[in-house]
Amino acid sequence: MENFQKMIIGAGAAGLFAALRLGEAGQGKEVLLVERNERAGRKLSATGNGQGNVTNLDLSEKHYRSSDMRLVSSVLHRFGREELLQYMASLGGIFSADEEGRVYPASRQASAVTDLLRFRLAELGVALRTGEKIIAAEKRGGSFYLRAASGSEYCCKTLVLACGGAAAPHFGTDGSGYALARSFGHTVTPLRPSLVQQKTDLPPIRGLKGVRCNCRIRLIRGGHSVCGAEGDVIFTDYGISGNAVFKISPCASAGDTVAIDFLPDTESAALLEALRNKLKSAPALKAEDLFRCVVNSAVGKAILRRCGIDGARNIQDIAGKLPELAQMAKNYTLNLTGSLGFDSAQVTQGGVSALELDENLMSKKVKNLYIVGELVDVDGDCGGYNLQWAFSSGWLAAGAVAGSKN
Fold it and tell me: CA distances (Å), 167 to each of 170, 248, 406, in order?
C-alpha cells in the first residue's frame, strides 16, 4: 500500500487545478494525482470545439443551475474569471474574448491549455499517475483507503474527488465517481445530459440535413415559452444541433416544442412585404423560388411543404398563402422526442448535492473529503461556464486543503 498526505482522483480541469494549487503552496511532494486515462486533461483538450473556451466575460451565477446557488455564487466570487486569467497569464498564456464574450487562448487550441497546465504541474513536482482507475474508497479512523482496478492500494489523509460527471464517456467520464461519493453517504441528485443535441420529429426536417442557419429559437412547454436563445441551428438526420440548441438543452425534455425564427433580424411585416414584392416583380416564378435570397433554399422548400404547397406551382397561384408562409418562416415548430444522451452531451446536469458541501467544497458528512467539478450538481450554460466552475471549485478546495492541519 502506498501512502500520501493528499490524493486527487481525476486529472480533468478541476483535478488539475486542485493539484496546481497544492503545488503552488509548496505541497506538491505530498500529492498524488490519479487519472484513469493514459493522459491528463483529455476532455479539457476537446472543449470549445477543440478551441478551448475556458470562461466568459459575462460570468455570474445566473448562468448556472444547482441545489445551492449560494455556494455557486461564493465560489465564483472568490475565484472567478479575472483570477483564472491572471493565473493562466502567469503561466505564459494569452487569452482573448470573441463577440459573444467567450474567452479562448490566442492559439485557439484547447490542447495548448492542457499542455500549459501539465508543464506547470511537472515543474511543481506533483506526481501524476495515469492509467489508474480508483474503484473503491472508504475512511477508517483518520485516513482514506483506496483500491484501484489494477489491484493497487493507496492511503491518504485528505481526498479530493474530481472524477467528472457522466457526459462524454469516451473521454473517461463514465459517472463512476458518483459511486465513490455515495459510498461516503452522499446524495446524488437525478442526472441528465446537458449541452446536447436534440432529436425531433423527422418529417419537418426532411431535406435539411447539413443546413446551418443563424436563428432565434424558443423552447415551448404547455403553450408557454420556457427559454430562448439565438445562434446557429444545424439540421441533422436525427434533429437539431448548434450553439442555440445547446443553450436551451438544459431545460429541454421530450414532448417540448422548439419554435425556430429563421429571420431573427426581420420583422414579420417586412418579410411579408418582401414576399409580396417578389410576387409583383417576378410573377412568372415557381413557388419553390419564393424564398430565394430570403432564407436558405432548402429551408424555403421545407416551409412550402409545411404549408402544403407544391414548389412546382406558379407563384401567382399562392398569393393568398403569403401571410401563412411568412408566419411559418418566423415560427417553424419542431416537436422534441429526446436528446442524443450522455454519449454526446458536453456536461452532466445533477450530481452530488451541493447542499452537502461547505463553502470550500469539503463534505459535511466526511471530514477532509472534498468533491469538485462536474461531480457536484452544478452545471452552466454553453460558453465557458462549466470549465470556469471546474477550475474555480478545484482551486478553492485545494486552497482549503493547503491551509488545513491534517
Answer: 9, 17, 34
